[in-house]
Amino acid sequence: MDDVQFINDMWKIRRNSLAPVGFDWTDNGINATDVDMIDPGNGAMLADQEMIRPGMYFAFNEARVSDTGQAVNDHGHNYRKFNFTQPTGEVWLVRGSKQQLMYG
User: Fold this and answer.
1) Coil, helix or strand for 80?
2) Which residues does 35 contact at the CB level (< 8 Å), separation at least 6?
3) Sorting pLDDT into bands at 50, 70 and 90, what band is 5?
4) Alpha-carbon span 47 to 87, nearest angstrom
5) Taking Cα atoms as reference points, which of 3, 8, 6 lies closest to residue 89?
6) What pTM value is reported for the model?
7) Which residue would you say has higher pLDDT here, 65 or 87?
8) Dihedral sign, CA of 54, 55, 61, 62?
9) Rounded to whole angstroms, how far apart are CA atoms 14 and 35?
């Protein structure tokens, strides 16, 4: 992750590759509860899911996201709207599908 901020009463994550230009915390910020913090050495979920900071690795929790099917080209990038469980709601990210969001 590239940045972490407390926005709208929740910790949000910024990943530059998922919103490379025109980033907005409301439209593109990912709620920290919608991801699992990962050990980059072995890919296992970290025991401490509360500690988040820039530079850490994460994976999306598949049960907390769905693909709305809505897409738009903005700033030369193809954004797709994903719906995360509440309180997050809708987030625009540069990925073509939920499959691509989950597995790259």
Assistant:
1) strand
2) 13, 58, 59, 60, 61
3) very high
4) 23
5) 8
6) 0.86
7) 65
8) positive
9) 12
